[in-house]
Amino acid sequence: MRRGLLAMRNGLPDDDVRESARALAAHALELPELAGARTVAAYVSVGAEPGTGALLDALRARGARVLLPALLADNDLDWGEYTGPGSLTEVRHGSKMALLEPSGTRLGPDAVTGADAVLLPGLAVDTRGMRLGRGGGSYDRVLARLERAGARPRLVVLLYNTEVVARVPVEEHDRPVHAVVTPSGARRFA
User: Fold this and answer.
1) What is the largest CA-CA distance in the chain?
2) How confident is the model over 16-62, as pLDDT tens digits?
3) Backbone angles phi, psi at 72, to 5 degrees
4) Judging by beta carbons within 10 Å of its beta carbon (0-12, 13-18, 19+), is residue 172 exposed, middle or buried?
5) Pfam families in the record, alphabetically (predicted)?
6) Any alpha helices (H) in 31-177, and if so which ranges?
7) Contact of 182 with 24, CB cutoff 8 Å
8) By Cβ atoms counted within 10 A, which residue in 42, 134, 164, 185 is the most buried?
9) Where are the extended beta strands (E) located within the chain?
């Protein structure tokens, strides 16, 4: 399922990826979960992932503190503050693709527990709100950390329209998201 979803993403024309990013930002900014968020943990999209750049800047313009991940050697995530495009640096992790990560002070893996909302990357979400990630486990660790801390941020995944599917495989540790945002709008889950 992951291979098929990635192949569809990688086949999207650049114009579609750019237009989708604008639509995603507009719909995401309408979500009450993000409108009232003082701190949002997010990520910088890479390749053909649904674009996050415009959304990150719009959240900052609203006065939200935006935290971005930095990948650690064990695939866990540290966090740093996003203060604009100039606060990012390209980091290559071994043979993996290069990621844009915050260049400032690292806040530690537990910094995410102070977020009011967490934007999660994914490949698909199903009608129950179950998210299919890329399989590296980084965000499974984030979700487990939030649960251990008793933190209850709103969980939102950003996807393309075709990535909202009937069912994704679920493992015991998987947790549902509260909402999905696609270029055509937002959907909440119970």
Assistant:
1) 41
2) 999 999 999 999 999 998 988 999 999 999 889 999 999 999 999 99
3) -95, 165
4) exposed
5) 5-FTHF_cyc-lig
6) 32-35, 53-61, 138-149
7) yes
8) 42
9) 39-41, 65-71, 77-82, 88-92, 98-102, 117-120, 124-126, 131-132, 154-158, 164-165, 179-182, 185-188
